[in-house]
Amino acid sequence: MSFIRNAWYVAAWASEVEGSKMLPRTILGEQIILMRDGEGLAAAVSGVCPHRFASLSMGRLENGVVHCAYHGLGFDHTGACVHNPFGAPPKTMRLKAYPVVERYSALWIWMGEADQADPALIPDFAFNDPAHHWVGEGYLLAKANYELEVENILDLSHIQFLHASTLGSSEVSNGRYEWKQEGEQIWSNRDVYGEIMTPQLATAMGVPVGQPVDRWIYVRWDAPANMAIFAGAVPAGQPQDRQRETPTTHFFTPETEGTTHYFYAISFPRAMGPAGEAMAQEQVRFLSIPFESEDLPMLEQQQRNLQGKSLRDSKLGWLPGDAAGARARNLLYARMDAEAAR
Amino acid sequence: MSFIRNAWYVAAWASEVEGSKMLPRTILGEQIILMRDGEGLAAAVSGVCPHRFASLSMGRLENGVVHCAYHGLGFDHTGACVHNPFGAPPKTMRLKAYPVVERYSALWIWMGEADQADPALIPDFAFNDPAHHWVGEGYLLAKANYELEVENILDLSHIQFLHASTLGSSEVSNGRYEWKQEGEQIWSNRDVYGEIMTPQLATAMGVPVGQPVDRWIYVRWDAPANMAIFAGAVPAGQPQDRQRETPTTHFFTPETEGTTHYFYAISFPRAMGPAGEAMAQEQVRFLSIPFESEDLPMLEQQQRNLQGKSLRDSKLGWLPGDAAGARARNLLYARMDAEAAR
Amino acid sequence: MSFIRNAWYVAAWASEVEGSKMLPRTILGEQIILMRDGEGLAAAVSGVCPHRFASLSMGRLENGVVHCAYHGLGFDHTGACVHNPFGAPPKTMRLKAYPVVERYSALWIWMGEADQADPALIPDFAFNDPAHHWVGEGYLLAKANYELEVENILDLSHIQFLHASTLGSSEVSNGRYEWKQEGEQIWSNRDVYGEIMTPQLATAMGVPVGQPVDRWIYVRWDAPANMAIFAGAVPAGQPQDRQRETPTTHFFTPETEGTTHYFYAISFPRAMGPAGEAMAQEQVRFLSIPFESEDLPMLEQQQRNLQGKSLRDSKLGWLPGDAAGARARNLLYARMDAEAAR
Q1: Domain containing B31: what range?
Q2: Which one of A342, B252, B271, C144 has the lowest number of neighbouring Cβ atoms within 10 Å?
Q3: What digits encode the pLDDT tens for the residues C238-256?
Q4: ipTM for the complex?
């Protein structure tokens, strides 16, 4: 498995799991049921009944208890069997329970050893805090390994080609690029000078349409694949104004070796009022177009071309823009090996 | 392979194989052609031409001879090559012939050593004898291993949950349950007291709609997976009246490791006249609803959750209601091991 | 792999690769881009970018350079990286280039060692030379191994059965058959006497409809699977008139172990003028019917019945008509073994 387990993954947008609704989702190849307990606290349990392997997604959630559709066993949010229509609930039949934290508009799940599930390890996505930001949320399922997604975002040189008419411009390759590691965090920063952005992108970034701008696009990666892009633009030649920077979120969570949940978002301050909310919704719709119609076909074709091999076991070419992605993958591989060695 | 070979399997309803028609069907992973010889006796031969692996299902049956569509070789119901357009029929090219017996409205096939194919080993389904009963016949193909089907029928506690609005009621779990072994036969018997059945079920069972009844549901299993359910109901508190018992038939025949032919039927005495015939047709249509829309999705999801493993190699949970199914499977496993050891 | 590599395969009809268009096609399991250089010379390079495994089919061909859609690398028809938007083209990233020859209306590709790619090894299909013949071209993709195709064409006894109402007649099995080997070439020749051909076939062959004819059908095979059929007919009893012979072409090129590109054609002399051109188009349309609706389902079913095994590893039956096919396959196997031994 090309996964690390002792890490926080985003299992869902918090808004996907409402009061009395359960959400079935496969993460790292495991069926999981996301739900909320009586107090609205998010929880996650294994999604397969230990009795006869029925998927609990076929059952129902009632008063915080998941009832199996086959023989009626009921399990609470801790995984304990609390209901057996034919006798005492068997203590030996438990669902695995996973640590879950709700933060930054998302439900974070810990797939590894529960005693290491420290919420302080969740990377900072404060700009997704719904108390202070309007968060436009998107989701898609990619038939590609998450490492391909990490490389896609850490090397945004591709926006000039793959996103020529949406997010890119002909000036990207003339810009400046640097990457750096800060602790376990990787940054991949790109400055583009004097580019004319597409009208849609200029409007989104609050710069005049059709005029040259200087754009900065700074990407941050935290293991396993929780990424942020901080991007902004100013009229060409003006100094950077970080106040005009818009953060986007890119959470990648493996569904299986060959498929990945992609949670993406764009955030605007609540201080902007209703205009900010409208902007968040409009901009996330705009982003969905290149993500689904440009990135997705490319990533899925890469995955097919891997022919079942992992990226780690494949002989890749090398361009300077690959450095950040390669470093991130090496950090992942070191942790995979450490987990496998234990 | 999780199959026993020295056993009688139902290959088809007898009515599926008419005079001049051949029926191709895969059983235990083998392509088979079912046909009748000149006197109408049912026969079964391998469905793949030994010459160049053409499926004989693409050819035609003419005067009891199956002609391959590719190069015209003809084989009779014994599997012998009896026609070669280009010379003498080659004696070395034969189809495998399988012992077949027509009994109880079905064609029974023996997949193992022919000299052990004793028709006396066919279990008793006299209530399917078309001379004395109207038999409403149904068929479906399940993408699930036959052992899951055996467990499904031997543990009918699930009718309270999976069939809540069709075959079950809330009182099933309050009933009485016992199982027993009689020789190689397993019985799994359930009595339910004071239940209010769905109107459709009450009508089918000939008891007043909306009034509490006592129902008995007795299940019989014979290896590998030929099962009968004897069920009846009387107004609550009255003694059982076995005259009012209706038998249903559940023949499961593996198509492959992961798919199963399901032949089901319900029988009424010919003595009932035309009303009995109408009842048989109407009731089998009613049964098809829970079988196809409730059991099938559950069984097929279980199969997917096995992820390619056999039930035998999986760690299952245990409820008292599983005893009969577990015993049946153990009998199967012992015979599998014995066959493998030879 | 059941392929020989040091051989000429037909990659495409020449007409499929026009001036500024590139054609992606998988051959022997490898993605390939077919294109033409600045002077219109056909070329073939690997279809997967060595940088991040993007399929170059998603990119674009511009001025003889294939540009990857992902990060903009450009490769010329020799496979050299000639464009890198972010710096000097990396010499270490090359596409594999394959020798290609345009001849007989087709593009021939050499999948093995380039220094052995002698154009003199291309078998003679002069009747497909567009300078002197009208060539009606057809193509289909069969989900069957190419060896099944070779056997299909080398044993045309099947036209009596599989093509009973199109290409065959009841007299085929009464004809004369012989096969011979001439060097590395196999011939499989069939003469049929006094047959009444279907009206469409009689018209195509220029003999009276409804009257008995003598037909000759001579098949030629060159490794790996480049085949020609020379067929003609005269009123029964008259001597063969080779002037009235029409050649058809059958090029089989493995796409994968289980799928095959089938390029077929029928040729008429340019001397016939426009009538010849019309004839070529009409006849190739006629041929497409039995090839697609009669041969294809049979071949694909054979492939499924092989259940992942190769024909070489399967125990086949034997009829005298199989001799030519068996000889051809043995020649292939000997070359496979020789290639594997090196």
Answers
A1: 8-122
A2: A342
A3: 999 988 899 999 999 999 9
A4: 0.94
